[in-house]
Design a protein that fits this description.
The complex is a heterodimer.
Chain A (H helix, E strand, L loop, with lengths): L1 H15 L3 H4 L16 H12 L11 H6 L6 E3 L18 H23 L8 H26 L22 H15 L17 H16 L1 H4 L7 H19 L8 H9 L11 E5 L49 E3 L1 H10 L2 H7 L3 E5 L7 E6 L10 E2 L2 E5 L2 H5 L28 E5 H15 L5 H13 L12 H16 L5 H8 L2 H11 L29 H6 L11
Parallel strand pairs in A: 5-7
Antiparallel strand pairs in A: 1-3, 2-8, 4-5, 6-7
Chain B lengths: L1 H15 L12 E6 L10 E4 L5 E3 L5 E4 L7 E5 L6 E4 L6 E4 L5 H4 L1 E3 L4 E3 L7 E4 L1 H4 L18 E4 L10 E4 L12 E4 L2 E3 L3 H4 L6 E7 L2 H4 L10 E6 L5 E16 L8 H11 L2 H5 L7 E2 L2 E2 L13 H5 L3 E14 L2 E13 L6 E15 L2 E15 L14 H7 L12 H4 L16 H7 L1 E20 L2 E20 L15 E24 L3 E24 L15 E25 L3 E12 L8 E11 L5 H4 L5 E15 L10 E5 L27 E6 L8 E14 L4 E13 L2 E5 L8 E5 L2 E17 L3 E18 L6 E4 L12 E4 L6 E4 L2 E4 L5 E3 L4 E3 L5 E2 L10 E3 L7 E2 L5 E5 L4 E11 L2 E11 L2 E4 L1 H5 L44 E3 L2 E13 L2 H5 L4 E15 L19 E2 L6 E11 L1
Parallel strand pairs in B: 1-7, 13-16, 46-48, 52-56
Antiparallel strand pairs in B: 1-4, 2-3, 2-5, 5-6, 8-9, 10-15, 11-12, 13-14, 15-16, 17-20, 17-57, 18-19, 20-21, 21-22, 22-23, 23-24, 24-25, 25-26, 26-27, 27-28, 28-29, 29-30, 30-31, 31-34, 32-33, 34-35, 35-38, 36-37, 38-39, 39-50, 40-41, 41-42, 42-49, 43-47, 44-45, 50-51, 51-54, 52-53, 54-55, 55-57
Helix pairs in contact in B: 9-11
Classes of the chains: A mainly alpha, B mainly beta.
Chain lengths: 571, 1062
């Protein structure tokens, strides 16, 4: 018994002297910022996370080009029941697409901040790698802020990573302060980025890409006075000069050119190729990949919601789902249609190279019985290429003239699922990349900026403009004697025809101060002959107010951030 | 019944007997001890007064004693009975009858780290009547607990065999975190309710439920949700007794939901399809072989009722064998049990095998106990309600939706034989042959639970004891999923083809407790009991899951998993530890005035150093006023009466193991993209079109300030006993305020994070609980006793995150219904249902009619997304009167919390028969019957059958109807009062009739006791709810209660069994 007593006492002594601080100390079996950023590969995987917002469905992967940036005069939503969105001119500050877009931009910013704060933790990683990672993170942070400023104007400006769940309220920072900082950051980053000829793909930001985006930022900054309806200050001219300077650097790098066939640029996007002709026209793309077939979720919905495909789905039909091309063009909701205004622009210029690609020039014909496979293409009247009777063995026919003339509002077809190479084709998800920056934009930015800083269009301006027009096989304008104002109008139309459905038109209209007028003018357009009568409900989608020059600050931010008490005017 | 109760008592008593000495060999005094009902009493202590000679009665109540002196007095003492002194009579066998003491007041209550008699209790503690509960033919104790104890709300989300129960004690404290109580099984605290269901109910000695803070505070940081203390049986002194209990039963579906028959179905199709489609080559009114089909042809035609095909009469059986015996120094108990239950939905099953060993050894001042319990429970069959993405993937969408009849040119049996209905557009409708999916989807979940625990207790000097205990549990789970080519997820048209998933997890937890108690008294007036101790607990968890897809040969099942292509692999490891100090003082003065105080300090690895320790004090007082002289004269009426008052603080630490840390996540698998608007982090960016590109992203923020959620509770109560215990009454009032809620709170989005665990918000629960036990009649032949309990709880949100006045939540069941259907708003209960107020359908009078089109009259509100509202469309209240019905017109449409819940039991005994009738009810809660959104809405989905109630839909021929007409209006899809139903019910939950055979014949073959019985479960439910069963909640959280969509229906069980003791 004595011994038992001793064991007890001993046991108690041992147990009570267990150091409680050690016993209660548990380190997570998960990755933490403190234990990460040790080697090159960890820097790269974190950088992948910084890029990630770009490809999300709430950014270029699906909703942004359609619901947020798609609300312009070239597009309308092809459904009579509106979706609550900017696109349908019925948004509010609770809007999902606005709220989540805001949120993922800030997620990207915070990730970039974390990476910037930790990139130098291990100085044994070579300088060149750390500098490039730093430069890409710095650029992406700036790019996300530019998207915020473009959308909302003054926004909370966070240059340090979020470290605590408390004290997260932040005031809106004057957009000019943000512009100054992000421009400086991009300029700092450029020398350390890869050159376009060093990469075989275009999903990563390069020196050319950064310079082009910088030019875009300057142009938008130059138009802020128009958006805010204030007199242009002297700085506006310097913004145009800077825009020209940076775009010109891209041109003069000699790394880029225009692909002779306009449509090939987009066929490359759809078929998982990068500048397949060897000409680097596509400078920066948002990458999407795969078909969500297994675990990966890297596919987006470009082509499925905005773009062209079959109205019948073959993704569950065993005999067809693994086929490509006409045999299985892939399903598309065809939410986005081109307005009659855009159609008429192309018609006026005789622009078929771009017009017949960007606006559907045919519809599929289908078998009458399930699964209603594609039997051929029926071209709209006048759109059947001469001599074409079949494609891939599928018959090509032409619609009656009257039918086609009554029906000039047609599907957006810039992104065509027919060209997808990943099989089986998913009903809803596509590997189609989204074009963020193309060389033709560089050229038209040079032309536009140059025109603004000179009294009349210069040879350089004409050269750049006509490079784009020649590629489209429309009349060059060199020596046409346009005034500065006329040249500006030409640029506006040229940009519409060249970049429609690439999520830039809305911003162009805003920086030109044209947005409200152009949109309200569309209301009359919807009642004109040629606007398919069944689509005239689209009149409601053009009823925007002046408030639409900005997005509303999302409710999710207003509800939680005590330092933002006032929304943008009109919201 | 009485006998069974007594047996139970014996177990308690014998374990408390301190000195037992067997008599000598020659026994010249013999006899039998009986209770007042003439039942023999085993284990009664018998002493010769003034000597050391003593014995106890055997299992038949007989004793023999040979004292040195043949004269003198025998003292009979037995726990729960009045001590009796009888003069020795050697002339004949002595027959002694002991009188029961006040039963209820002497009941031993297990209150955590010690036991106490009920009369000495100062807090609110309830004991479940395990004998009563055992009468229900169920797999685990929790399935029989509902309605038994006031304030303990027990419900199951649906009727799946083996599904665990949701137990909430005195209302929900926490908004986003788990509200289930702490389980303490033989001293081992476990937060996971699965531990409770791993115990064979026949092995349970007692279940004690700690409700108020003075009782739960001893469990400190984990006590806030209440504590359920389960004590398992230990060996009992006496001859070895073998007990067998076998039971066989049959379960049936309680009710089926009437669906449209072929005639009504085709009639509805004719309103959905165009006339030319109907008469076309694929239409229901086609011309085939010269015959043109009409609606009349579908009357009495051969057709399917799919519910008849998937529901079955399901057998269930259980077998328990137990062995117990021992002497004063060495006692043992062992049991084996097997439970097997088929589900009423074909191809579903739950079974459990379980074994237990317990050994207790006592040597002078040392007593030890060792327990081993092992159980393995297997659940087979896929869940009908838990598919994550589309509600159309859930079983009953297909069961109800599958059409009863086909077009004349389509063979009716093709529906049975094909995986999908060929007529259905598979791209927008995921209906799948329900028979085929049930028969081919292989789902097996195995939970193996092993518990070792033991203690050694040593009494140093009288009253001073040290108890050192240790325990170790291993909770091992394994999930197997196999989708062959005839299943929804593995068919040739699926993306992954034939696929298999294996997941395993293991949680190992150890515990050490060292408790010192000291008990003494001063002049037998001041009684002290002081307890102090420290405990250590640590838990390690790991989880692994792997999946392969595109499996070539499916005939091997899981064995062929290696043939597939590797897909998702998940691994996850975490751990936590706790260090606690605790102390409690019990003091009473002459059993009249009681004071109890306790204090616990809990340190947890889940919190950062600064906030690691939480301190949880409690204090309570009680006054047995019937001990006062001025009350003595009323003692004939008011036998005993006590007033209790307590206050205390308890905590809740149910957060993630590493929620205080900033964490990164390496993402590759399914986290690459937002699938909607949820908070999913995302990280993959496919450089160079490479889908395997992997990204790392931050997914949580550090929160070093995170600390315990604290619940302060005040409780006041009366325990009254009238007419010599014929009527026992307990009344409690409580007020709980939970502050610093552990809340997954929304963050400022521009911080880059959506939400984080924060200590924010405040919730109140106030309530009254009332229990009355009566013994209406009690004599040797007949007895009738009742138990009635009722509880009222009022829950109220007092505070949410900064500035937030309401927190909206979506109780998810389908990706097309993601608007918020629940709201937690300051000033109102958690879990209120939220949506539009339904006014009925738009009537023709609401429109101007120009001969072709109906146009809404000015001033009549329309749904915002509707360009052309038509007669028969659903009409909602325009609360803000702006002419547009939109999200600003949403309001409260139902309540998730019942107004009162309770139970009512009647027990009768007559001449060997025992009858027990138990009712349970819940009053005042609503149910969101989301099934109606798809099956009483006519969303123009072709060939989707509807509830029979939808035949009464609005049509121009039936303009009074308030069921919306067939349209694809988006206003059909709103959460509104149209689909809110009254979930009140009263249920005849358990009925049990038994007969105890008291036969000498049986005794001769060695059977000491035999009882045959019949019992029924869920026999009848009175409710106005139109779904399968009103006890339903497929997304059961505090925020999203009582949502019904494709829930597994509940069964009625009829069973019979036999209970034999050898």
């Amino acid at each position: 018994m004595k011994s038992i007593k001793k064991i007890f006492i001993l046991g108690i002594i041992i147990l009570t002297t267990v150091s409680c601080s050690d016993f209660l100390e548990k380190e997570p079996h998960t990755l933490t910022p403190e234990t990460y950023f040790n080697n090159e590969s960890e820097l790269e995987t974190f950088l992948t996370g910084v890029y990630s917002p770009i490809m999300q469905e709430h950014f270029y992967g699906n909703y942004y080009p359609l619901y947020n940036a798609g609300g312009d005069d070239l597009t309308f939503y092809q459904r009579s029941s509106p979706v609550s969105s900017i696109l349908c001119a019925n948004a509010n500050s609770g809007n999902t697409y606005i709220n989540t877009y805001w949120k993922i931009l800030y997620e990207g910013i915070n990730r970039a901040n974390i990476l910037l704060e930790n990139v130098d933790r291990n100085t044994e990683i070579s300088d060149s790698i750390r500098n490039r990672v730093k430069a890409e993170a710095l650029f992406l942070r700036s790019f996300y802020y530019f998207n915020l400023v473009q959308g909302w104007g003054d926004v909370p400006f966070r240059l340090k990573s979020t470290q605590s769940v408390y004290g997260l309220d932040a005031e809106r920072t004057d957009k000019q302060i943000i512009y100054d900082q992000i421009i400086e950051d991009i300029i700092d980053a450029i020398p350390y980025l890869k050159r376009s000829d060093e990469l075989a793909y275009t999903g990563r930001i390069t020196q050319s890409g950064a310079k082009g985006i910088l030019a875009r930022i300057y142009l938008f900054r130059a138009g802020e006075c128009k958006r805010d309806k204030v007199a242009a200050g002297p700085e506006v001219q310097t913004y145009f000069a800077e825009a020209k300077k940076w775009a010109l650097e891209v041109k003069e790098s000699g790394l880029h050119g225009l692909v002779s066939s306009y449509k090939q640029v987009f066929i490359d996007l759809c078929s998982d190729q990068y500048n397949s002709t060897g000409v680097r026209e596509s400078i920066w793309e948002a990458e999407e990949a795969g078909n969500r077939g297994t675990a990966e979720q890297a596919a987006g919905r470009v082509g499925n919601v905005i773009g062209f495909g079959s109205t019948n789905d073959y993704s569950t039909v065993t005999a067809y789902k693994d086929l490509k091309g006409m045999s299985n063009p892939g399903y598309s909701y065809k939410f986005a249609y081109a307005s009659l205004k855009l159609f008429n622009m192309y018609e006026a210029e005789g622009d078929t190279a771009r017009g017949d690609w960007n606006i559907a020039n045919y519809e599929y014909t289908y078998a009458s019985t399930s699964p209603k496979q594609v039997t051929g293409r029926k071209y709209y009247y006048g759109k059947l290429p001469a001599g074409m009777t079949s494609v891939e063995g599928f018959a090509c026919t032409q619609d009656a003239m009257n039918n086609s003339n009554n029906n000039k509002t047609r599907c957006v077809a810039k992104y065509r699922r027919e060209y997808e190479v990943v099989t089986p084709k998913n009903k809803n998800y596509t590997p189609i990349n989204f074009p963020i920056l193309r060389y033709s934009d560089i050229l038209l930015m040079i032309a536009e900026a140059d025109n603004e800083i000179n009294a009349t269009p210069t040879a350089l301006a004409y050269e750049c403009l006509d490079a784009v027009r020649n590629r489209a096989h429309i009349t060059p304008l060199t020596n046409s004697g346009l005034t500065k104002d006329q040249f500006r109008e030409v640029i506006k139309n040229e940009r519409a025809m060249e970049f429609c459905f690439e999520a830039t038109r809305r911003w162009d209209l805003i920086r030109w101060g044209d947005f409200y007028n152009y949109m309200t003018d569309m209301q009359a357009y919807t009642q004109m002959a040629g606007w398919t009568s069944g689509f005239r409900y689209a009149i409601n989608y053009y009823k925007v107010s002046e408030a639409y020059n900005y997005y509303p600050i999302p409710d999710s931010e207003m509800d939680t951030n005590n330092k933002i008490t006032k929304n943008n005017p009109g919201w | 019944m009485r006998k069974a109760l007594l047996h139970l008592f014996i177990l308690v008593c014998i374990s408390l007997i301190t000195t037992t000495v067997y008599g000598q060999k020659t026994q010249n005094i013999t006899g039998t001890v009986f209770d007042e009902n003439g039942q023999t009493l085993p284990g009664v202590n018998i002493m010769v007064k003034g000597t050391k000679a003593a014995t106890i009665t055997d299992s038949n109540g007989k004793f023999g004693l040979s004292p040195a002196n043949s004269t003198g007095i025998l003292v009979f003492s037995y726990m729960g009975f009045e001590t009796l002194e009888v003069k020795i009579d050697k002339t004949k066998p002595m027959n002694v009858t002991l009188k029961e003491k006040s039963k209820s007041l002497n009941e031993v209550m297990v209150i955590g780290y010690q036991d106490i008699r009920k009369k000495d209790l100062t807090g609110s503690v309830a004991k479940a009547d395990i004998t009563e509960m055992l009468k229900a033919p169920v797999a685990s104790f929790d399935q029989a607990l509902g309605g038994r104890i006031a304030g303990v709300n027990v419900s199951s989300g649906e009727g799946t065999p083996g599904s665990s129960m949701n137990i909430v004690i005195r209302g929900n404290n926490s908004l986003t975190q788990d509200n289930s109580p702490l389980y303490v099984i033989d001293g081992f605290p476990i937060e996971d309710p699965v531990a409770g269901s791993s115990i064979n109910p026949n092995d349970i000695e007692s279940i004690d439920i700690l409700k108020d803070a003075s009782a739960t505070a001893i469990y400190g940081a984990r006590g806030a949700n209440g504590v359920i203390i389960i004590t398992t049986k230990k060996g009992k002194v006496g001859e070895p007794v073998i007990n067998y209990d076998g039971n066989y039963g049959v379960q049936r579906i309680i009710r089926k939901i009437p669906m449209m028959d072929a005639y009504e179905f085709v009639k509805m199709q004719s309103e959905i399809w165009t006339a030319s489609e109907m008469s076309g080559e694929n239409g229901y009114f086609q011309t085939l072989n010269g015959k043109t089909w009409t609606l009349e042809d579908y009357k009495n035609i051969e057709q399917f009722n799919w519910q008849d095909l998937i529901f079955t009469e399901a057998p269930q059986q259980s077998h328990n064998v137990s062995l117990t015996g021992g002497n004063a120094g060495n006692r043992y108990q062992a049991s084996l049990s097997y439970f097997d239950q088929d589900g009423i939905v074909i191809n579903s099953n739950y079974n459990r095998i379980q074994g237990k060993l317990s050994s207790s050894i006592r040597r002078n001042k040392l007593s030890t106990n060792l327990n081993i319990n092992y159980s393995q429970a297997t659940q087979n069959g896929s869940s009908p309600s838990q598919s994550s993405y589309s509600g159309m993937n859930n079983l009953f969408f297909s069961v109800w939706g599958y059409r009863p009849v086909t077009q004349p040119n389509v063979d009716l049996n093709s529906l049975l034989e094909s995986t999908v209905d060929e007529g259905v557009d598979q791209t927008n409708d995921y209906r799948f042959n329900p028979i085929m999916s049930l028969n081919n989807e292989y789902r097996k979940n195995v939970t193996s639970y092993t518990q070792f625990n033991g203690y050694a207790e040593y009494e140093f000097v009288k009253g001073l004891k040290l108890k050192v205990s240790g325990g170790y549990t291993i909770d091992n789970r394994r999930g197997e999923t196999f989708n062959n080519s005839k299943t929804r997820y593995g068919s040739p048209i699926s993306i992954e083809h034939v696929n298999a998933t294996l997941s395993t997890s293991e949680r190992k937890t150890w515990l050490n407790e060292n408790i010192l108690t000291f008990q003494t008294n001063i002049d037998k007036k001041h009684f002290f009991n002081l307890l102090g101790g420290m405990t250590l607990q640590e838990s390690n968890y790991d989880f692994y899951s792997m999946k392969t897809i595109n499996i070539e040969n499916e005939s091997l099942g899981m064995a062929g998993m290696s043939q597939g292509d590797a897909s998702t692999i998940i691994s996850n490891i975490s751990d936590w530890s706790m260090l606690s100090y605790l102390t409690r003082l019990n003091y009473n003065y002459r059993s009249k005035y009681y004071v109890t105080a306790s204090w616990r300090a809990d340190g947890s690895s889940k919190f950062s150093k600064e906030n690691r320790f939480g301190y949880f004090p409690s204090a309570s007082v009680a006054w047995t006023f019937t001990e006062e002289d001025f009350m003595k004269r009323y003692s004939d009426i008011l036998h005993s009466g006590k007033f209790r008052l307590s206050w205390g603080k308890t905590g809740n630490n149910r957060v993630g193991d590493y929620d205080t840390y900033a964490q990164l996540m390496l993402l590759k698998a399914s986290e690459g993209n937002y699938s909607g608007i949820n908070d999913k982090v995302h990280g993959v960016y496919p450089f160079d079109n490479t889908v395997s590109s992997v990204g790392t992203v931050p997914y949580s923020l550090p929160n070093k300030a995170l600390k315990w959620e604290t619940t302060a509770q005040t409780n006041a109560g009366f325990d009254l006993s009238f007419l010599n215990d014929r009527i026992d009454l307990t009344l409690d009032w409580y007020n709980k305020i939970t502050s610093d809620l552990l809340l997954q709170a929304a963050l400022v989005p521009s911080s880059g994070f959506g939400s984080a665990m924060k200590n924010i918000g405040k919730v109140q629960n106030r309530g009254i609980e009332f229990t009355i036990n009566t013994t209406i009649i009690k004599n040797k032949k007949f007895s009738w006793s009742t138990n009635f309990n009722i509880a009222f709880n009022r829950n109220k949100v007092l505070e949410l995150a900064e500035n937030q006045i309401a927190m909206l939540t979506n109780g998810y069941f389908d990706q097309n219904f993601t608007s918020s259907n629940y709201i937690a708003k300051v000033g109102y209960p958690i879990g209120m249902m939220y949506g539009y107020l339904y006014e009925g359908t738009y009537k023709v009078d609401d429109f101007n009619y120009d001969g072709t089109t109906y146009t809404l009259k000015p001033g009549i509100a329309r749904y915002t997304a509707e360009n052309a509202t038509q007669p028969g469309y659903p009409k909602y209240t325009d609360i803000n009167n702006d002419g547009i019905i939109d999200s600003n017109d949403q309001t409260f449409i139902g309540r998730g919390e019942p107004i009162h819940t309770g139970g009512f039991t009647n027990n009768f005994e007559y001449a060997g028969f025992d009858l027990s009738i138990f009712f349970q009810w819940s009053y005042g809660a609503n149910i969101i019957n989301a099934n109606k959104l798809m099956f009483e809405s006519g969303n123009k989905r072709k060939d989707l059958n509807q509830y029979a109630s939808y035949t009464n839909r609005w049509t121009f021929d039936n303009q009074d109807s308030d069921i919306p007409c067939i349209s694809n209006s988006s206003s059909n899809n709103l959460f509104s009062s149209r689909i809110i139903e009254d979930g009140s019910f009263i249920r005849l939950k358990t009925l049990s009739l038994g007969y105890t055979i008291n036969s000498k014949q049986l005794k001769k073959v060695g059977i000491s006791k035999a009882r045959v019985y019949f019992s029924g479960q869920n026999l009848f439910t009175w409710t106005s709810y139109s779904g399968y069963d009103p006890e339903v909640s497929i997304r059961n959280t505090a925020l999203t209660p009582n949502l019904d969509f494709s829930a597994y229906p509940r069964a009625t069980t009829f069973s019979g069994g036999v209970n034999l003791s050898f």
